[in-house]
Write a structure and sequence with these properties.
five-stranded antiparallel β-sheet, Immunoglobulin-like, 128 residues
């Protein structure tokens, strides 16, 4: 747990989801592909943040572990396989469906040690 995670001063507005994408990378030289989900968060309004923290959310609840998040973006490789057409791969489809049971929420850290409220959870695989 980071030192800021123990801070009790919660003020301002929660961060917002700025973008969320699924990216398929194909390497024809070796015949492989991978699908990565990237979700980027931004401060709400004119909030100034010095850093970010992330927490995992599942159907069972919010994980107690708080981790630092570099740059305000999450990058998760959700699927990988052989071939040249990831969109047609049943393994990719199954992996994306499984990923939907996981979500993340973030909060901003300020230079004075205070934090923003947690963002709304964003389901893995969401595209925006």
């Amino acid at each position: 747990m980071t030192a800021a995670a123990q801070t009790t001063a919660v003020t301002g507005a929660a961060p917002v989801l700025a973008s969320a994408t699924l990216v398929d990378d194909v390497d024809p030289a070796v015949g492989t592909w991978s699908t990565t989900w990237e979700a980027c968060f931004a401060p709400a309004g004119n909030e100034a943040v010095a850093g970010w923290e992330v927490q995992t959310v599942t159907a069972e609840g919010v994980a107690p572990r708080v981790r630092g998040l570099t740059g305000g973006c999450l990058d998760l490789q959700l699927a990988q396989g052989r071939g040249a057409a990831p969109a047609d791969d049943p393994g990719r489809t199954a992996a994306l469906a499984d990923a939907g049971s996981l979500a993340y929420q973030v909060r901003g850290l300020r230079a004075d040690g205070s934090v923003t409220p947690w963002s709304d959870p964003v389901v893995v695989g969401t595209v925006r």
